[in-house]
From TrEMBL:
InterPro entries per the UniProt record, alphabetical: DedA-like, VTT_dom
Keywords of the record: Cell membrane, Membrane, Transmembrane, Transmembrane helix
Gene name of the encoded protein: dedA_3
VTT domain: residues covered: 54-182
Protein name (record): Cytochrome O ubiquinol oxidase
The keyword Membrane appears for this protein: yes
Biological source species: Empedobacter falsenii
Major location category of this protein: membrane
Its membrane topology: Multi-pass membrane protein
Transmembrane parts of this sequence: 28-54, 75-98, 162-185, 197-214
Length: 225
């Protein structure tokens, strides 16, 4: 667990360096490693409770940036985009079926170190407010993107509807962010200020959640008055 936390911390600080270290040490295995990271973030609901700030958005941006570099030939954007789209969709499917088969049992459990029902409750509210489009919007929201497929399974959302929106969300999430990194990563201002850009991506990804928290607190204070 400590090594995982250190990896996430180091990645947030210098994602390009961490990814290049992986490429230098493991070569083309980088594809497998990246696939497993995206799959875990979208497919293993327990990850949203153990490590709510997984580096999904920053990871994809950095992948695009590194793929644009001329001094390496291990990471190709034309391969990584469809690969990570598949990882995200498969992850959604796992979470959907876990929610469908075991959702009642999981929700019936008491809060513990690996299960925080408040996260599920907030994601459920988000889903109820936004409907099916929440599956797409949630792709760009850490924690929520992991829980929404689970909620869809628990509520028995029609699978064809779910997989359609899941596919659209994966295409937009992986495609837009990776191509953004691929384009911007060719500019020196981005390379020299990568930490700030990564922080900005994380902040933007969490902005909908931050706004919801602020609104909820505002409404609570207003009600108490």
């Amino acid at each position: 667990m400590q090594s995982i936390i250190e990896f996430i911390t180091n990645f947030v600080q210098r994602p390009d360096k961490v990814l290049m270290d992986i490429i230098n040490n493991y070569g083309y295995w980088i594809y497998v490693i990246l696939f497993l990271i995206i799959f875990a973030e979208t497919g293993l609901i327990i990850m949203s409770f153990l490590m709510p700030f997984l580096p999904g958005d920053a990871l994809i941006f950095s992948i695009g940036m590194i793929a644009a570099s001329d001094d390496q030939n291990h990471l190709h954007i034309e391969y990584i985009i469809p690969l990570l789209m598949v990882a995200a969709i498969l992850g959604d499917n796992v979470n959907y079926y876990v929610g469908r088969k075991f959702g009642g049992w999981i929700l019936g459990r008491k809060d513990s170190w690996f299960l925080k029902k408040k996260h599920i409750e907030k994601a459920t509210e988000f889903f109820n407010e936004n409907g099916k489009k929440a599956i797409i919007i949630a792709r760009f929201m850490p924690v929520v993107r992991t829980i929404i497929p689970f909620i869809c399974g628990v509520t028995n959302l029609n699978y064809r509807t779910f997989i359609t929106y899941s596919f659209i969300g994966a295409v937009l999430w992986v495609g837009v962010i990776s191509l953004l990194g691929h384009t911007l990563g060719q500019f020196d201002i981005v390379k020299n200020n990568l930490e700030k850009f990564i922080f900005g991506i994380i902040l933007l990804a969490n902005m909908p959640l931050i706004i919801r928290i602020v609104k909820a607190q505002f409404n609570k204070n207003k009600t108490e008055e």
